[in-house]
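Onboarding guide, step 5: your first structure request.
Type a short instruction followed by the sequence, for example:

Predict the 3D structure of this protein.
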Amino acid sequence: MNTASTPDAASGSPPVFTQVELFTDTDGRARFRERPIALTEGTPASRLSAPLPAGALQLRQSPPGFRSEFHCTGQPQWLFVLAGRMEIGLQDGSTRVFGPGQHFYSADTLPEGATFDPTVHGHRSRALGDEALVTLFVRG
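The system replies with structure tokens like these:
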């Protein structure tokens, strides 16, 4: 998770960075999927992706025991965990945990025209352990 792979020598394809994405599926429910981001720029010793849009950075600190209700992301954003551990829970009962240095792209926005239903839409988050959760949001 959240890693880059080396090029496939047989195919000559460039290495990829795995983007973990939290998204809204066609049924309105949040789900996780993984998408490759090709590292096609830079040098063989330092592979880069094409530039990605970023318009704002925001830091957040949540105390130990932090827990949210189900909610949707207001606008798509990258979330990077800087300290602590964060659990993301989905309506289907599945969870993923992200620790320092890990990240995901949160794009589980409310479907156009829908009214938020906390039994269908969104995700919940919580801090795990006895350490504050520090995150960085990068918005497009």
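Each response can be followed by summary notes, for example: The chain has a mean pLDDT of 93.
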